[in-house]
Amino acid sequence: MTGVSKLLFGNPEPSDRLRYSAGAHRRPIVVWNVTPACNLACSHCYAAHSGEQRVLDTGEAKRVIDGLASYGVPVLLFSGGEPFARPDIFELAHYAKGRGLRVTFSTNGTLIDDKKADSLAELGTGYVGISIDGTEEIHDRFRRCKGAYQASLAAIRRLLALNVKVGLRVTMTRDNVASIPQIFDTMREEGIPRICLYHLVYTGRGKEIASSDLSHAEARAALAAIIEETRRCHAAGLQTEVLTVDNHCDGPAIYLKLLAEEDKDRAEKALALLKANGGNSSGEGIACISWDGTVYPDQFWRNHPVGNAAETPFGEIWGAPPPDSLLAQLRRRKELVEGRCRTCRWLDVCGGNFRARGEAATGSIWGEDPTCYLTEQEREQ
Q: Beta partners for 308?
């Protein structure tokens, strides 16, 4: 994640400890796709599947949670499918909270009625990320369900009324990128304190719409729009946390913009934050567990299992992987990345960008991520 608001203004934000501290990637945030079931069929879903899927039962899932707690995982994010399609989701969430984990959710929001909103408030949920992908018409088309936008917005309002922290999650493509200002307008009007804007990853159904991904020029324009809207929030006195996700060249691009604006002091502080964060952390600061317990380096890279948390405690899988394993290699990725990444001056702050997308484009797990839009001059100056 690239903390746009943090780089621009340096204000304290809730997840600073997880992104910029000396031990930021010592233990991973775990995304747990607890079920393949979903009430929608979104066009960009990374976890889309076919056929029967094994799903851990409640007892097995609690043993996975025990392993996460024992290893000291700081945050557990329940995702799916749609996490609220799983009947025992609140039982698992309360169990995780009781084991000392910070519990968060990623959801389409359409299943959060008054009862579930009350349950989330009672749980003391750390955060609920709800997908909004544009205006009502665009969102419903993205989600392939008329009425999805209104249902998600109703969920956001229910949770905010109960003082549950909510954020927006947006996946950017050519079909919705022009809606960025309207999405920010909605965020300001509703009093939503956080937004994550995702670059498309070519996995799951995302492979089917890869042609709708932003060009380099469009990605730059999108970042410019995000920066402008972030500055509007700041000027209005709003402490809005704004992040872009899954294209780590956004960080150097913001630094270079600050330099071009002759804000050298802010630029140097932003660069220090980027170096502390280190860019892509798949296999280090982020992990994924699937509904059957399979562990992956991140939630998008689902063709490279590294173990099963229902069979082996998570800490044994993650903590000391064999030297020739993918996890061990990811922890020295800067030696292995190929193409322009290998000699790029920003490798230490980007981490070689997104491996799942690099592999999808080149066939090599160390291949160059094609979405990096930095010019040769920007890479070398």
A: 294
What was the pLDDT predicted at 45? 73
User: Which H or E run contains 157?
Assistant: helix 148-161
Confidence category of residue 50, pLDDT binned at 50, 70, 90: low
Q: Is the dihedral of CA 223, 229, 231, 234 positive or negative?
A: negative
Adjacency order of strands within the sheet including 102-107: 2-3, 241-245, 194-199, 166-172, 127-131, 102-107, 75-79, 29-33, 286-289, 294-296, 307-308
- Given a contact cutoff of 8 angstroms between Cβ atoms, the answer to whether 20 and 273 are in contact is yes
User: Which residues sit opposite 63 in a β-bridge?
Assistant: none
pLDDT computed for residue 51 by the predictor: 62
Work out the mean pLDDT of the chain and round it to a whole number: 94
Report the alpha-carbon distance of residue 107 to residue 155 in Å, rounded: 10
| pLDDT tens-digit series, residues 129-158 | 999 999 999 999 988 889 999 999 999 999
Which residue type does 70 have?
A: S
User: What is the C-alpha to C-alpha distance for residues 289 and 114, in angstroms, rounded to an integer?
Assistant: 29
Q: What pLDDT was estimated at residue 49?
A: 66
Query: Is residue 29 within 8 Å of 68, Cβ to Cβ?
Result: no
Kindly list the distances between the CA atom of residue 356 and the CA atoms of 28, 204, 231, 329, 380, in Å, as whole numbers in the listed order.
18, 11, 31, 14, 25
Residues 77 and 30: beta-carbon distance below 8 Å: yes
Name residue 102's beta-bridge partners. 75
Q: How far is it, in rounded angstroms, from Cα 336 to Cα 180?
A: 36
Residues 6 or more apart whose CB falls under 8 angstroms from that of 250 comprise 2, 4, 223, 244
Percent of the chain's residues with pLDDT above 70: 98
Contact between 150 and 137 under an 8 Å Cβ cutoff? The reply is no
